């Protein structure tokens, strides 16, 4: 007797450096096939594609065609790898880094693709890690404090330079022509759904966490006018009915079917954020269960039935992760990125050659060399702020610090000190939640950094708590596939789909008491440096940042 081929969904995760498509069995979340497509232009940080004109410090742009190419190349390859036919696919969902935001025309065309704008930097998509709008973010916070905006507390008292308003205000100030031509200002998370269905759609997750949409609305015109007279109608570029997560945004258009190899009419789920969608994959939806998605950056996502204003959190949004609960987000803007910096700048040629000879990454080589020494053996304490501080200080013009360097310090010592510093940063965040009355009862990790077992054990020792793992290397894509199953009607809601399709391994890393005690002492040193350089003890980091100039080539 022949059995029907299994119903599947496709999750497409748009990360910082690449897009990954994953084919998942609706019945139990089995991962049947996957494919990755690296963005051709990667992260545009030093010079504009085409013209080659140099970009100032702290810029980070992306090229929308790179994202379309993920749909074109990774989706069909994932279907082929899974041995799945298009008619088995009942739904597709995407997730994106956020706040990755772009100016588009009324039909969704990116301004960077419109004649006359291809050589204007502000016409391009601003990646989440574009930190050049810090002055604008500082002004937004000042104006919100002085005018008593109630929504400021929902973001821990700070609005990030990474989010929609600071980035848009920077465009208005530096290229008003691009600002005026931007009929819509849209998250890439929604823009990619628009490419799939042919119609605009907006999700409540990015609107809430990155677009200051609280209690049913955006900041009012009176507040926006405080920032710039021409900013008064900015939210008109955002206004659109917001869709609940896990619902259908529409059906796959004929054009998108040709692009992806899927059937026209396949259900397309509402867009979502790479971190928030992963909670469903990790079965981390219940209150008090914190999920850390550890990659280029780390995002901390946790639901609660308690509404609190946690200092320095990225935001709290009703239904922001799952309907019926308050979804909290915190984060560290540089984690894998900071370690990549160490690999690029601290590893000597002989280390690179050794890694190649042994057949491991330089990350792995540095980790192996660093792992043996006792806690504190390197005599270093670092601040993990090479990409600024997202939580709890929300200041992207802070910078990294390594204290204790001597002539004996080795590259692996620096690498390990930075691993420890990122763990200390996570501990600061957990303590901020608990001090504000939002308990953190479970900690689960997901993301590309799970491959580093030493790093994960260090986190268990620094946090002093066991660490669960999301048992998938494709957490965001699995989460998106789960949302697609709900949107296609295979499950009544995200919770039941997560219970059936999600995967978690509990207490994979358990803290070692001796190392916990040793790290408590190092953490006290970290906190002293954190508060001194991050809370006004010495403003030297801002003074040094002001002296930085545009990078040559
Ligand atoms: N063995 C490793 N140990 C620690 N970090 C690593 C290792 N290998 C890669 N990385 C870091 O992982 C990050 C990429 O994370 P990943 O989750 O794959 O991508 P994304 O952040 O785009 O979702 C990079 O910043 C890279 O420096
Ligand atoms: O900020 C968020 C989510 O709010 C992330 O999309 C952003 O930090 C990028 O995440 P990755 O480190 O690229 O996975």
TrEMBL record:
| Swiss-Prot/TrEMBL catalytic activity | L-ribulose + ATP = L-ribulose 5-phosphate + ADP + H(+); D-ribulose + ATP = D-ribulose 5-phosphate + ADP + H(+)
GO-annotated molecular function:
ATP binding; D-ribulokinase activity; ribulokinase activity
Keyword tags: Arabinose catabolism, ATP-binding, Carbohydrate metabolism, Kinase, Nucleotide-binding, Transferase
What domain of life does the native source organism fall in? Answer: Bacteria
GO biological process: any one? L-arabinose catabolic process to D-xylulose 5-phosphate
Enzyme Commission identifier(s): 2.7.1.16
Q: Where is the Carbohydrate kinase FGGY C-terminal domain?
A: 291-488
Q: Describe which pathway this protein belongs to, using the record's wording.
A: Carbohydrate degradation; L-arabinose degradation via L-ribulose; D-xylulose 5-phosphate from L-arabinose (bacterial route): step 2/3
Please give the HAMAP family that the UniProt record associates with this protein: Ribulokinase
Q: Which family does it belong to?
A: Belongs to the ribulokinase family.
PANTHER family membership:
FGGY CARBOHYDRATE KINASE DOMAIN-CONTAINING PROTEIN (PTHR43435:SF4), RIBULOKINASE (PTHR43435)
Protein name, per record: Ribulokinase
Which organism does this sequence originate in? Answer: Actinacidiphila bryophytorum
- Recorded name of the encoding gene: araB
